[in-house]
Design a protein that fits this description.
It is a single chain. Strands 1-2-3 form a three-stranded mixed beta sheet. Helices cover 68% and strands 10% of the residues. The longest helix is centred in the N-terminal third of the chain and has 33 residues. It has eight helices and three strands; from the N terminus they run αααααααββαβ. The protein folds into two domains: 207 residues, Alpha-lytic protease prodomain-like, CATH 1.20.1510; 76 residues, Cation efflux protein, cytoplasmic domain (Alpha-Beta Plaits, 2-Layer Sandwich). The protein is elongated and about 90 Å long. It is mainly alpha-helical.
């Protein structure tokens, strides 16, 4: 499962970089042909996309490396660091888009757009490519839980509204000479970007700070442990996340009169049950003897 998820995550990163390079080429051609400032702004955004997607792909590839003597728990925290940095860029983009929209709204002489036909064709193709990429990235993020892919999907999704705004501006300029059509769309996009960027950033920050898993995950772990046969009790449940991986540590109480082999089989079965419930989890089970002669009594 982990190898399959890694392949999906890498495919998402490669797709993002490929689309970013394609859009840069198309919009550079459109800019040279039209001289439209709106296309120039969209081209600059795609240059940022390329930098972010390249960084995301590098983080995914690094996080896929197996554990070694310097990183006993693997390298998946690189995903959280990349997602956090991406969230900062998304928030910066939201501020920039909002500021430019306000300045355009209050400007007494907004810049005019020319040669709209070429720009419209390029922006339509950009819209289709970006939408297809977002659908794939969101599919991968749902399947793997990868925060980097989710942040990349958010960033490209944020491109759809500005792209639609550029299309509307080009069409309005060509048909009616109107230049303020995309201002309202840009303001709404900026607000949505800010909220979504904060959500992605908070999730990545929580993982970097070793915050416990979500309450519903903890509830499932407790339910599995509570129902596991031949366990007198359990305690010291500890969890944390790193990238798309979940780490679980749990102490279980087992009758001290049974053999070590039996105790190991009980704990091993619980470990496999938790790994089945959470395929990307690394589970560590500690066994504590209870009962007569063990110095501890089973919890009642």
């Amino acid at each position: 499962m982990q190898n399959a998820n890694t392949r999906l995550n890498l495919s998402a990163g490669i797709a993002s970089v490929t689309v970013a390079v394609t859009l840069i080429g198309l919009k550079l051609w459109a800019l040279l042909a039209t001289g439209a400032l709106s296309v120039a702004a969209s081209l600059a955004d795609n240059l940022l996309d390329l930098a972010m997607s390249g960084g995301a792909l590098a983080a995914i590839a690094y996080a896929a490396r197996p554990a070694d003597h310097d990183h006993a728990f693997g390298h998946t925290s690189a995903e959280d660091l990349a997602a956090f940095l991406q969230s900062l860029i998304v928030l910066g983009s939201a501020g920039l888009i909002g500021t430019l929209a306000i300045l355009r709204a209050i400007s007494p002489d907004p810049p005019r757009i020319g040669a709209e036909g070429v720009g419209i064709a390029v922006m339509l193709l950009s819209l289709v490519l970006t939408a297809a990429l977002v659908l794939w990235l969101r599919h991968v993020a749902r399947r793997t839980g990868n925060r980097v892919v989710a942040a990349d999907a958010l960033h490209y999704l944020s491109d759809l509204l500005p792209t639609a705004g550029v299309l509307a501006a080009l069409a309005a300029s060509a048909l009616w000479g109107v230049t303020h059509v995309d201002t309202a769309v840009a303001l709404v996009a900026a607000a949505w970007l800010a909220v979504s960027g904060l959500r992605i950033g908070r999730g990545a920050w929580d993982a970097l700070m070793d915050r416990a898993a979500e309450p519903e995950v903890l509830a499932r772990i407790r339910a599995i442990a509570d129902d596991w046969p031949r366990i007198a009790g359990w305690h010291d449940l500890k969890t944390r996340t790193a990238g798309s991986r979940l780490f679980i540590s749990l102490h279980v109480e087992i009758d001290g009169r049974i053999t070590l082999n039996e105790a190991h089989a009980i704990a091993d079965g619980l470990e496999h049950a938790l790994e089945s419930a959470f395929p990307d989890a690394e589970v560590i089970i500690h066994t504590d003897p209870v009962g007569p002669g063990s110095g501890r009594q089973a919890k009642g």
